[in-house]
Specification:
- With 93 residues, the chain is an all-alpha fold.
- It has four helices and no strands.
- Helix 3 packs antiparallel against helix 4 (58-91).
Length: 93
């Protein structure tokens, strides 16, 4: 979509647009967000599996487990984000 807007203003090939976008990118620009995404996925997966394995009480229990899984995952992701930002600032100034 950005390329279409750019092409309407100033004709530019898609190849040039992509090269200009990634010209200033470095490996250190890609590693921290990828690390955070992996940690967040791990947290959500572990909490969801744990809550699912201890579900009791039929369909009502599944609903309660899903709700508690979302709440706990949200809290742990926020906490992990704070910790990861501090770590990323320390290692990737």
């Amino acid at each position: 979509m950005g390329w279409v807007a750019q092409a309407l203003v100033e004709p530019q090939s898609l190849h040039q647009f992509i090269n200009a976008g990634f010209s200033g990118a470095d490996f250190n620009d890609l590693l921290p967000p990828t690390l955070k995404t992996a940690v967040f996925g791990l947290i959500i997966g572990l909490i969801a599996c744990f809550q699912g394995m201890r579900t009791r009480g039929g369909a009502a229990g599944v609903g309660r487990a899903a709700t508690s899984s979302v709440v706990l995952s949200s809290l742990f992701v926020i906490l992990a984000d704070v910790v990861l930002v501090k770590i990323i600032i320390l290692f990737f100034p």
